[in-house]
């Protein structure tokens, strides 16, 4: 994880983030100077950012919106005060509404980003300056420290070519906190086709089967928010096991990039998870990222202990060798 420290200073009214990257200073600068790269890590997992404006000049403005998994929105803007490529820049960071107007009751702060070369790559020192202790405490209470750590943990996938970052590493499971798990898998194929493979029943039946010896017996796909989904599986022949299935509702659908849905075992009241699927394509390969929110740590550990990750890897391998290869 790139973040090495987050320091708050009540006397000087600052919050400082220190991060070390295994990449040259020019590569790190480009990640912050290109909105398409920046939006891949600026929002924490589950709250991806979209920059709708980015005038990267002194006096210019940038505006972004982070979209939560349940339809929540949080927007911000930068006014660029200084730009010194590739060594750093400074902005006024404000909470704004969808029209870019500052929100009442929320602090604006000056932020500086300083980049320096190190023996192993680049160190970033990001300092936010507040005008009162109340503003500093407000941002901390809003989860800025943990949110920053989780957001910055995504930058490695941006600084490396996608294949260098994920190819050959299979299905990776990361425990982000007590209730959030991030699962990633790189597959060779276009994002459009990977999206279709997740949302067209005839394609889903070819790969979304888990270990060998199972078949999909029911497949109802949710294509719009509020739609119900339902999927069932059963063992074939002498394969051990009992039929089971999941059901839930779509919460957000942004084809072919993102789909968020609830999920629970069929015929039960829970426990229910929130599954946030994101697809990112680079040079003909697609990174599948599934962020799962569990109701509590006990449920998280119970479900992971079922061998879920192994079953997902078997399915992803089948997806790549079958649907995407054809």
UniProtKB/TrEMBL annotation:
Under the heading Pfam families, the entry gives: AHSA1
Domain Activator of Hsp90 ATPase homologue 1/2-like C-terminal stretches: 22-159, 190-321
Would you indicate the residue range of the signal peptide? none
Q: Which domain of life, per UniProt?
A: Bacteria
Q: Which family does it belong to?
A: Belongs to the AHA1 family.
**What is the protein's given name?**
Activator of Hsp90 ATPase homologue 1/2-like C-terminal domain-containing protein
Q: Which organism is it from?
A: Microbacterium gilvum
Q: What is the lineage of its organism?
A: Bacteria, Bacillati, Actinomycetota, Actinomycetes, Micrococcales
């Amino acid at each position: 994880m790139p973040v090495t420290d987050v320091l708050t200073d009540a006397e000087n009214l600052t919050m400082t983030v220190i991060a070390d990257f295994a990449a040259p200073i020019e590569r790190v600068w480009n990640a912050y100077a290109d909105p398409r790269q920046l939006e891949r890590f600026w929002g924490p997992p589950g709250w991806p950012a979209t920059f709708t404006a980015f005038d990267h000049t002194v006096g210019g403005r940038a505006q972004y919106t982070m979209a939560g998994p349940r339809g929540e929105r949080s927007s911000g803007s930068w006014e660029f005060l200084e730009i010194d490529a590739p060594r750093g820049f400074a902005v006024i960071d404000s909470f704004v509404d969808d029209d870019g107007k500052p929100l009442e009751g929320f602090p604006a702060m000056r932020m500086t980003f300083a980049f320096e070369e190190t023996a192993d790559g680049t160190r970033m020192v990001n300092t936010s300056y507040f005008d009162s202790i109340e503003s500093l405490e407000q941002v901390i209470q809003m989860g800025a420290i943990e949110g920053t750590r989780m957001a910055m943990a995504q930058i490695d996938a941006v600084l490396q070519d996608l294949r260098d970052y994920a190819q050959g590493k299979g299905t990776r499971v990361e425990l982000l906190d007590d209730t959030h798990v991030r699962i990633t898998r790189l597959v060779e194929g276009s994002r459009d086709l990977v999206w279709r493979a997740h949302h067209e029943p005839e394609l889903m039946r070819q790969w979304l089967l888990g270990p060998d010896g199972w078949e999909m017996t029911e497949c109802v796909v949710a294509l719009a928010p509020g739609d119900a989904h339902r999927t069932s599986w059963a063992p074939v022949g002498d394969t051990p096991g009992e039929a089971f299935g999941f059901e839930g509702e779509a919460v957000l659908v942004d084809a072919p990039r993102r789909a968020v849905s609830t999920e629970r075992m069929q015929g039960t009241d829970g426990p229910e998870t929130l599954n946030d699927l994101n697809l990112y394509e680079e040079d003909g390969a697609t990174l599948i990222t599934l962020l799962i929110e569990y109701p509590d740590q006990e449920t998280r550990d119970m479900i992971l202990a079922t061998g879920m990750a192994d079953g997902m890897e078997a399915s992803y391998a089948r997806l790549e060798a079958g649907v995407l290869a054809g």
